[in-house]
Each structure stands twice: as structure tokens, then as C-alpha cells.
Amino acid sequence: MAGAKSPVREEKLRLKGKVAVITGGTSGIGLATAILFAKEGAKVVIASRDNEAGKFALEQIKSNNGEAIFVKTDVSNEEEVKVLIAESLRRYKKIDILFNNAGIELQKPVTETSNEELAKVIDINLKGVFYGCKYAIPYMIRNGGGSIINTASVAGLVGFSNLAAYSASKGAVVALTKQIAIDYAKKNIRVNCICPGVIATPMVERFIAKSPNPEETRRQLNEIHPIGRIGKAEEVANAVLFLASDESSFITGHSLVIDGGLSAQ
Ligand code: NAD
């Protein structure tokens, strides 16, 4: 219309005003998600075991004018997870989003897995998720709701060779996610998990480097995905953002596969 002022186009930040806690937020999928969340307006609490990696993650976020803090946490230690939640609340007053993402890999068949190795994988990959939910949910209830995203894996849905303890831990995360989703749906808390295929992160780089023929391993990992390549951490972060944001407001108890068609075969 002639003479009318053109409207100012405000950028819509998808997590504006939200507070997000991300475990394993110093590397790979967790770091890519922390950076994306901060760009989308969230205040981010990054938790992992390594202070140096924590500093690096904070620098990445702050260089993009994002807001974040680091809380050194071992997610397999219940007391430390309690402190993580308390510290997040002390600093930012609420928790809207919890991304239970910290995890470790173990590439062994059942007959070669020691009890100590099994316990370590379960303590971090499963109990870490359990503790995060246990201590964040009471505050989310008081706050009127929240969104929890747990990192499982396609290995928690279908079989892969030499991943006995890892697959068991991730399958348990899929089941736990559904269970908690049902218990707290009426409290406006949504709980979903992601099931990535092979994603280019330091975890996978370590796996490739340890293999007898790294170049051949890389080629095979690309090839098993119908899309013809392994995924990027940013591609997973985009899916986590969707589950974290209000755009997924009718989705709970879901396991979102992000695997370039790997498990569709
Ligand atoms: P990564 O090794 O790059 O990052 C793992 C993060 O978890 C790091 O920040 C590490 O410090 C943290 N962490 C490990 N143990 C911890 C503990 N006890 N307490 C606190 N933090 C701890 O790996 P990634 O590939 O980004 O993996 C992230 C998650 O995604 C894991 O749960 C992993 O099992 C899962 N996943 C990865 C892939 C993949 O191909 N990369 C596929 C499916 C699922």
C-alpha cells in the first residue's frame, strides 16, 4: 500500500527465553546442539567431565553472542547430577529443556565384555539419563512443563555386531523414554529420544582410528547408509531443536530415527 511503512521483520528465535541443560555438551552431537540452541535464544548449561573441553565449548557459544555456563559433571554420579540441576536453577531460575546426551561407546561382543565394562556403559548411558530425569522433572513440574530429549541410537532399535553392552544401554533408553513420557504427560512434560545412525563426531573418529584399516572402515560406514554417507552432528542438532521447541508440542514418547535410511533396510 502506497505510503504504508514496511513492517520490521523480527527474526523468530525458536528457543527464546528457554533454559536448556545439555549433558555431553562439549563434543560432537552435544556441542553442535549447544551452539544451535544458543543461536536460537536459549540459555545453555553445558555439562561434561572435562574442564578444558568445557572452556572450548563456552568460547564457541560466546563468540556467537550466545549465553552459556559450564558445570563439570559426571552423569554416572547421582550426586553430581543433583548438583548440575541445582546449579542450573541457581543461575537461570528454571529448566525448560533437558538434553540427556552424554554417552560412551564400547565395541565388543557379549562374550568379551567384562562386568566392569558393562557397568560403566550402563552407568553412563542409562543411569546418567535416569538421574537427569529424576532430578529435573520435579522442577519442570513446578515450572509448568518442559521438554526432555534422551540420546539413544539406532543400535537401541536394531541389531549391530559387536555392540552388546552399548545396544543394551540404548535400547533401555528407548524404553525409559516411553515410560517417563506417559508418567508426566499430564504435567506438560514431553519426553522423546533420538536414534542417530553413524554421525561424524570424535566418538566415531576414535572408532575409525582404532580399526585395522581406517580408510576401509570409513568407506563401509558411509556405504551402509542408503543416503551414501554418515551424518553430521548439525543434522542431529536440528532434530533435537525440533523436539526441544514448542513446534513438537503434540509429540511425546517418540523415538526419532536420524540415520540416512540405515534402519529402514
Ligand atoms: P562424543 O564422544 O563426541 O561426545 C560425548 C560427550 O559425552 C562428550 O562431551 C563427553 O565428555 C561426554 N561424556 C562421556 N561420558 C560422560 C560422563 N560420564 N559424564 C558426563 N559427560 C560424559 O560422542 P557423540 O558421538 O557426540 O555422542 C553423543 C551421544 O550420541 C552419545 O550418547 C552416543 O552414544 C550417541 N550416539 C552417537 C552416535 C554417533 O555415531 N556419533 C550414534 C548414535 C548415538
Hetero ligands = nicotinamide-adenine-dinucleotide
Label the structural class.
alpha/beta
Q: Give the helix level as a range of percent.
A: 40-55%
Shape: globular
Please report which band the strand proportion falls in: under 5%, 5-15%, 15-25%, 25-35%, 35-45% or over 45%. Answer: 15-25%
* Poorly predicted parts: 1-6
Q: Would you tell me the overall average pLDDT? A: 96
Number of strands: 9
User: What's the SSE pattern?
Assistant: EHEHEHEHEHEEHHEHE
Biggest sheet character: 7 strands, parallel
End-to-end C-alpha gap = 54 Å
Radius of gyration: 19 Å
Number of helices: 8
Strands ordered across the widest β-sheet: 3-2-1-4-5-6-9
Q: What are the defining features of this structure?
A:
alpha/beta; seven-stranded parallel beta sheet; two-stranded parallel sheet; binds nicotinamide-adenine-dinucleotide
Q: What features would you describe in this structure?
A:
- 45% of the residues lie in helices and 16% in strands.
- The protein has helices at 28-39, 51-62, 78-92, 115-142, 164-184, 202-210, 214-223, 233-244; strands at residues 19-23, 43-48, 67-72, 97-100, 146-151, 189-196, 199-200, 231-232, 255-258.
- The protein has a seven-stranded parallel sheet, with helices on both faces.
- Helix 4 links the parallel strand 4 (97-100) and strand 5.
- Helix 1 crosses helix 8 (233-244).
- The N and C termini lie far apart (54 Å).
- Residues 1-6 have low confidence and may be disordered.
- The structure holds nicotinamide-adenine-dinucleotide.
- Nicotinamide-adenine-dinucleotide (NAD) binds at residues 23-24, 26-30, 48-50, 73-76, 101-104, 124, 151, 153, 196, 198-199, 201-204.
